[in-house]
Amino acid sequence: MKHIRDLPEIIPVFPLPGALLLPRARLPLHIFEPRYLQMLEDCMKTPHRLIGMVQTRDVPANQGGEPRLHAIGCAGRMTGFSETEDGRYMITLSGISRFRLRKEIEGFSPYRRAEVDWKGFERDQGDVEKDPRFERAHFMALLQRFFESLDLSTDWDSLRDADEELLINSLSMLCPFSPEDKQALLEAPTLITRRETMVTLIEFALHGGSGKERMQ
């Protein structure tokens, strides 16, 4: 799937607050709810094997009682799959492209499906993005303070060696930001904007929401 025309107009959507998928990144998921087990079985029968990850919105549910969805999500192709002895699935989604949700499809499916628009996200299927303004030393120092404040550990050598897209996108997905903050990271139009958004979120958290200090 190298072009928008190759992507389907209707895909299953998986609303999972806090679970962020980005283009060219991988997201492991543990699936056990019956309706999503059905979603995976149906997905595997399609040629594209796409699932759309979407954040839910903090607003009243729709008439069916389901939480409302954000307008923009990211579709991933199922590239890893294993089944446990008790019938649960461990899968890996590889991010393909963001999309704009046009409308949900009503029907008898136990899981949610949506008609989506891929236009405007052509960059997602292009080459790896670069961030020429990325100052790794300053960013890593800020990140270390953030991890220490949350008592988190990581493989710092791997982070220092990772290229900027892998680093920024992986951190966007893994850091304990709120669902609304992760939505902002998803919607960032470029890698530069995503990195700037992340720096703002980290600084805001480090300074108790005061936002007084900024990276020099």
Brief summary:
The chain is an alpha+beta fold.
Based on DSSP secondary structure assignment, what is the total number of beta strands? 6
Radius of gyration: 18 Å
Query: CATH superfamily name of the largest domain?
Result: LON domain-like
Overall, the morphology is globular
Q: What percentage of residues falls in helices of 4 or more residues?
A: 25-40%
Biggest sheet architecture = 5 strands, mixed, barrel
Please give the CATH class of the largest domain: Mainly Beta
The computed structural class is alpha+beta
Low-confidence stretches: 210-216
CATH architecture of the largest domain: Roll
How would you write the strand order of the largest sheet? 1-3-4-5-6
GO molecular function: peptidase activity
Pfam families: LON_substr_bdg
Domain Lon N-terminal: 11-206
Protein name: ATP-dependent protease
Topology record:
Blueprint: E1 10-15, E2 26-31, H1 34-43, E3 50-54, E4 72-83, E5 89-104, E6 112-117, H2 136-149, H3 156-161, H4 164-174, H5 179-187, H6 191-206
Parallel strand pairs: 1-3
Antiparallel strand pairs: 1-6, 2-5, 3-4, 4-5, 5-6
Helix pairs in contact: 2-6, 4-6, 5-6
GO biological process, one term: proteolysis
Protein name: ATP-dependent protease
GO molecular function: peptidase activity
